[in-house]
Amino acid sequence: MLKKFFCVFLIICLLFTPMLTVNAYEPTGIEITANAALLVSMDTDEVLYEKNADQKVYPASITKIMTVLLMLESDKYSPDAKIAMSESALKRISGTGSSVSLLKAGEEFTQLDLVYMVLMSSYGDCALLAAEYYGGSVENFVDMMNARAVELGLDGTHYENPIGLHHDENYTTAYDTYKLTKIALQNDTFKEVCESTRYTVNASVSGKRTLSTTNQLQDNTTNYYYQYAKGVKTGFTDEAGRCLVSTASYDGYNYMCIVFGCPPTEKKHFTESRDLYRWAFNNFEFKTVADVTTPVAEIKVELSNDTDFVSLYLEKSFISVLPKDADDSTISIKAKPNSDTINAPIKKGQVLGTADIIYAEKVIGTVNLISNENIEKSSLLYVIDEAENFFTSSYMIILYVLVAIIIFIFIIAVIKMNAKSRKKRKIKYKPYKEKNRQYDKISEDNYLDFEDNKKSR
Predict the structure, then answer these.
(1) Do 166 and 119 share a structural domain?
(2) How far apart are CA 36 and CA 29, in angstroms?
(3) Which of the four, 146, 298, 343, 402, has the lowest number of CB atoms within 10 Å?
């Protein structure tokens, strides 16, 4: 149950991890032969240097970072529980050219030992054993790896095996590797293992053996030792070249360096990583670019008797890793309020927009803009505004149009009715008058005939 919770927690952490900000400076006096490289501040997620960081590369044993992450996230993982080397894992690794543990089939050791043998010593047979045990089968474990990559948003990553053996469809990018490794380092066991230089395994048959890290930046017995370096994983195949994911911390600064595709015949993955760390530590520092005490914009406020405007402040001070000689005059803040006006009430701390932090004409970060005060709503202004909104709403406008149409139709109907009525009265009157005149004429003629007849008698 705890492991399921931890798995969900890692996803949430990734979702709320700031997006990488690419500032990408050009290091001076350093030649980078790696096909792809990335140097990132783990404190601010700012990219100080990148080269083909979103380009597809072959990861070799860098693949095992995902392998070990799934081991530690599994419900089956119990550090002190025993696990035995399988015959199938030994057969499967045979002839691949991968480094192997030389453990015998059936030989037991702890699951924590297995983590060290996969991550620190990069044994291919141990990686296959882990896939069989934690995934049920190697094929199912690879499906789990790809599903986890999707969950973590590693859009440029795909796995074909848990070891890192070369395959055209086993690939990643430097950006994806940074996101994956940063999540993995949040696991205390992963962090402790990859930062260790020596570890003793006590196997049931072959007895005790001491493992050594493959990262020579950590090993003070080598010519490549760098005292501030820690972890994480090396990788090599002919197709992938020399690869290294490492971290370094000094004086409160924490960086991750990733190099892929360094020349196979040299160990420039160590020297170039070390050179990039030295360049970063010597030339960059934290600068408070913007603080929370100064307003950066304002928005007009409606429905309040207290104020007509609300001032916008940065939600938090913005600290960036910038060159030590950075010109402060090239730093600016571009406020982007959500709207030109806002209705009261407004709560202190309410997000009202964002602000881009710009250095040398490049956006180096974005911070929320908030109100630093409570602004109350006026009840009277609210009622007036609601009434105005009601009478000017789209529904009322439709009603007004309908009423106007009805009135217009009614007027037309009345006009037509009146016209028809007048026409009827005019037609009835004319025949009546003509008939009367004819009757009168007939009556008059009859009367005259009557009088003439009367006289003749």
Answers:
(1) yes
(2) 18
(3) 402
Do 200 and 304 have their domain in common? no
**CB contact at 8 A, 194 and 232:** yes
- Identify the residue whose tokens are 């370094």: 248
Task: Classify residue 457: in a domain, yes or no.
Answer: no
End residue of a domain, out of 283, 318, 335: 283
For residue 401, what are the domain limits?
380-410
In this prediction the pTM is: 0.77
Strand partners, 40: 47, 256
Residue type for 258, please?
I
Q: Do both 336 and 318 map to the same domain?
A: yes
Amino acid at 430: K
DSSP state of 346: B
Do 22 and 137 reside in the same domain of the chain? Answer: yes
Going by their DSSP bridges, the two strands 46-51 and 21-22 should be labelled as parallel
- Which three-class secondary structure state does DSSP give residue 371? strand
Residue listed under structure tokens 């931890």: 6
Q: Report residue 46: phi and psi, to 5°.
A: -95, 135
Burial of 410 (0-12, 13-18, 19+ CB in 10 A): exposed
Do 217 and 342 fall within a single domain? no
Q: At 159, list the tokens.
A: 């796995």
Among 226, 253, 283, the domain-final residue is: 283
216 and 355 housed in the same domain? no
pLDDT at 1 (0 to 100) = 44
For the record, the structure tokens of 349 come out as: 């701390």
For the chain, the first-to-last Cα distance in angstroms comes to 143
The values of phi and psi at residue 79, to 5°, are -55, -35
176 vs 181: CA distance, rounded Å: 9
Please report whether residue 431 resides in a domain. Answer: no
The answer to whether residues 31 and 179 belong to one domain is yes
Nearest of 80, 87, 93 to residue 122 by alpha carbon? 93
Q: In which residue are the tokens 């940065």 written?
A: 314
Position 330 scores a pLDDT of 87
| CATH number of the domain enclosing 365 | 2.60.410.10
Q: Work out how many domains the chain is built from and give that number.
A: 3
pLDDT along the chain (457 residues), means of 10: 42 46 79 96 95 97 98 97 97 95 96 98 97 98 98 97 97 98 97 96 93 96 96 96 98 97 95 97 93 92 89 93 89 93 92 93 91 84 69 81 90 85 61 51 55 58
In sign, the C-alpha dihedral spanning 187, 192, 193, 194 is positive
Rounded to whole angstroms, how far apart are CA atoms 300 and 312?
11
| Beta strand residue intervals within 265-306, DSSP E | 284-290, 297-302
